[in-house]
Amino acid sequence: MLPNLPRKLGLGALVALSSASLPVAAAAHVKWFAPYIVDAAPAPIARTLTDPWFWTGIVLVLAFFIATRLVERTAVGETTLDAMDRATNPLWLRLDDFVRIMIAGFFVAIFSVGGVYLTPDLETPAEWVSWLQLLIAAGIVSRKTMPLSAAGVIFLWVLALRDYDPFHLLDYLALGVAVAAYLMLESSGREDWRKHRFEVLRWGVAIALMWSSLEKFAYPEWFYPLVAEKPFLTFGLPRDMFIPMAGVAEFTMGFGLLATPLVRRLSALALLVIFITAVYPFGRVDLIGHALIMAIIIVIAVDHTRELHFWSWIRRALVGVPIGLAGALVIFVTAYWGLHAAFYGTDTRTMAEIRSQQGGMATHSFSLEYPHGPQATATMRQGTDLPQTAPAELDDTSVTDAYAQSMMGMHDEMMAGLEHEDPDVAFVLGMIPHHQGAIDMARIQLAAGSDPENMALARHIIADQQKEIDAMRAWLRERGVEAPGL
């Protein structure tokens, strides 16, 4: 889902600390910006449980929650909530309009970007998907058609299952279902149902943040390229200190969204600061990808509701803070590691093992920069070598041979494809090996070259050419033509 993580205390001071020292990367979904392998075995949970920085983060956040709960029980806490209500009242009175505009705006934005189902890492070559997104946005205009838009959101998630593993899609299940549920409840004529519409959004974002935060504990290696590329994200902290504390920040603030009103709203404000701060270093992709989450976090910060509908006694009790957080950790960790084992088995290799066997490389995939989609699960289970993103060390002679081999292979396949009787099919069958040849040359450059500009160009060639290959193969599949390499 963080990509990850998502995202990676007096009252004002604690909030400021949580948004500054448990930092920006907590809000950046790693899968949008760095290599990853979903079906690699997660790191043993003992690795996290023996990490002192993990426990340091837990202690800091528990102190924040308990201090806030103590204040919330006093007249100062009630006065603080009243002041927040007055400040946010104009938006509270039009909150449904705000939510509907933001949901519609999100789908218009991803329609304009094109090529994705719901988020940047869920890519698709199907153009009609973008037009469905525009219809979803249009359906939100009227309460009568909002249920159709809700069905469209669920359909897009299910549709993505054709191209992506179910475990990968779990990152977005809670949020997608929450948005669809909001649309259904908001369009309902039953007030006893409608009163829960903001609550389902809150639970959806909380679950999404807690689930995606576990990537920082299960797959810290996914974050290494991102931290190396943008070292300022760690605020000078050592990498192995920063990543677990960022994971703690994302998980615990997600948990805080389900707590009592003051804890909930202060957690939302801290998260909003983190998400907004992440927009500058990660750009438009981050802004569009997180637009719905940011909008819902604003809803949580604005929500005047004081009532707690579920487990209210334990959520209000002071002892409920450590008990609730411990329970949430147990539930989510068990679900994450357990479901991963159920989907992929227990005999896959961890990222640390893959990195060591690939000479320190971060990942493998058919796309060097954004390796998503089908993964080499069978290969990993057999323990054989994974495909490399670039050849091993090459001397001057072997570089020449490697270039020659890549060109010969490209030429033979390209000429064979161009012989097809259908000129459109011939063009595509010829272009696929042509693009693959460019990718092979770029990989050789990454292994043997040293010029920074050429290295950057090679990475872009691999990413861009692979996207076009995927689109051409999809075109051939629609016409029942066997594509080379399949």
From TrEMBL:
Q: Does the entry feature the keyword Transmembrane, yes or no?
A: yes
Q: Record's Gene3D superfamilies?
A: 1.20.1260.10
Q: Where is the signal peptide?
A: 1-26
Q: Which residues cross the membrane?
A: 52-71, 98-119, 131-160, 167-185, 241-259, 266-282, 288-305, 317-339
Keywords recorded for this protein, A-Z: Membrane, Signal, Transmembrane, Transmembrane helix
Query: Boundaries of each DUF305 domain copy?
Result: 387-476
Q: Which InterPro entries match?
A: DUF305_CopM-like, Ferritin-like
Q: List, alphabetically, the PANTHER family matched.
A: SLL0788 PROTEIN
Protein's name according to its UniProt entry? DUF305 domain-containing protein
